[in-house]
Amino acid sequence: MKKININEKFGLFNEHWSPKIIGELNGQDVKLAKVKGEFVWHDHKNEDELFFIIKGILKIEFRDKTVELHPGEMLVVPRGVEHKPIAEEEVWLMLFEPSSTKHTGDITTELTVDKYDRI
Amino acid sequence: MKKININEKFGLFNEHWSPKIIGELNGQDVKLAKVKGEFVWHDHKNEDELFFIIKGILKIEFRDKTVELHPGEMLVVPRGVEHKPIAEEEVWLMLFEPSSTKHTGDITTELTVDKYDRI
User: Is residue A57 assigned to a domain?
Assistant: First the structure.
């Protein structure tokens, strides 16, 4: 049982679109990610996903609207809802989702990470 | 599906030791709380609990040590581990925990809240 400082953790990596696990509880992971550019359209069939913005502005496109998230704002994307994150400038974010969640859902692309590092 | 601004949510209440639900995902709640003073010793038999500090300094006493958490820091308290939060000055924090979690565990005190408001 050790405290986790998220700014220290953000200092440990620079890759984009490659979430890092910083904590686990009740079968859920807490992850940090740095993202920039456009991600792929995807959904998670069985997992709701929480995005919490630490730095920058993240747009999340849905098929019927776009939500813009600023630091201190969060959004829960329910399971089965297609979404596509876009960051015009670098964004730092925290994710909270089941440990089973793959960040690109059922889709495999060059962005897909098979295993998330723990930092 | 609506974005949640945590500063706006913190503006909606002032009670201490009375967590408010701001989001739900995968059977877990995201809660905000303002706390000041000493809470009671308790544990959660079946639920791990995440504390993430937004403002102020929270001490969490355990039977064998004390952990001091500053803004941007988090701690996962595993199920079954007795703990007692203490805030000398007011602390604003975010909690992630299963929706079944009672904030005072199995203990009922004058601080116990039976039902958490959703804000």
Answer: yes
